[in-house]
Specification:
alpha+beta, Peptide Deformylase, 5-stranded antiparallel β-sheet, 29% helix, binds nickel (II) ion, Peptide_deformylase_sf, Peptide_deformylase, metal-binding
């Protein structure tokens, strides 16, 4: 398995809208496995394909403590079952050091396809619900910084661009 490069804000590729997946082949499975490996290496709980410069509607999530319950989600869509807005404090592998409070729907019903193309659905609440909403945002080119004030967004942009410049010099 390969560790994929995670794009970081303000990379414009994070703003691309991902396309629906129609081929459920071994290439898709390979992409999904590499994404999962990358997410585990970087200690994330969710990763959207957009973050690794693959602009297809694919998400991996694993909320388990021992990293043994991966879920591969293709072509997700969800409907809100309980729209009580809950404030969720979130981070993102594409925005290192940044945290943002985001209003998320408490409970959703997720519909998606598995890696074989079979239709699946489940009801998610709490962290699983917020995580799915966060990752679907990525597929639509939306980022945590979009929920922040323009001042806070400008600050993190400056900070991450400095970090990137530093890396490029090494
Ligand atoms: Ni994220």
């Amino acid at each position: 398995m390969n560790r994929l490069n995670i794009l970081t804000f303000p990379d414009p590729r994070l703003r691309k809208k991902a396309l629906a997946i129609t081929n459920f082949d071994s290439a898709l499975e390979k992409k999904a496995k590499n994404m999962l490996f990358t997410m585990y290496e970087d200690k994330g709980i969710g990763l959207a394909a957009t973050q690794v410069d693959i602009h297809e509607r694919l998400i991996v999530i694993d909320l388990s403590e021992d990293r043994s319950e991966p879920i591969f989600i293709v072509n997700p869509s969800y409907k809100v079952l309980d729209d009580t807005p809950v404030i969720s404090k979130e981070g993102c592998l594409s925005i290192p050091t940044f945290q943002q409070e985001v209003p998320r729907a408490k409970e959703i019903e997720l519909s998606y396809q598995n890696l074989k193309g079979q239709a699946e659905k489940f009801v998610a609440d709490g962290l699983m619900s917020y995580c799915i909403q966060h990752e679907v945002d990525h597929l639509d080119g939306k980022l945590l910084v979009d929920y922040a004030s323009s001042l806070k967004r400008a600050r993190i942009k400056e900070k991450l661009m400095k970090l990137k410049d530093g890396k490029n010099k090494n």
